[in-house]
Amino acid sequence: MINRQQFRAWYILFxxxxxxxxxVGCGDDTGLGKRYPVYGKVTYNGKPIEKGQIxxxxxxxxxTTRAANGVIENGNYTLTTAANGDGALPGDYQVTVISKEVDxxxxxxxxxxxxxxxxxxxxxxxxxxxxxxxxxxxQLADTSKLKATVKEESNKLDFDLTD
Length: 163
Prior knowledge:
Helices cover 28% and strands 29% of the residues. The chain has a single domain (38-161), classed as Immunoglobulin-like, CATH 2.60.40. The protein is an alpha+beta fold. Strands 1, 2, 5, 10 and 11 form a five-stranded mixed sheet that branches. A four-stranded antiparallel sheet has the order 4-3-6-9. It has a two-stranded antiparallel ribbon with strand order 7-8.
């Protein structure tokens, strides 16, 4: 026969198991495999790129391989696949970098006068007139010739862009 103290101990163990097992057993809810940290520095002619975007596009299309992106600030970036800063899936990637100077003064002016998020036409015009801060060849996977391999570990991957 189980006494009250034994019952209480078993009850606490049971409830703890119900709470902890789902937490321990769950990864994230993206359905993706384990991602690994990817970070580094992007320079152009030896100088850090002030602002921009870096994209790792998978070289193979089967499986759960997915692109990862990062914002470049003062030359530094960290990749995100599904959740902020979660890294990238292991594998081989083609890398693209975009760094532009966008004059968004018309967009900002419209927002100040009329509110909202800016007119799409003004945003499109500003992006079309934007000045490339690095050669345009780095914007496309076919012409950038930048490649990277993400390993099942923390990955520091630097890129030095040139003319």
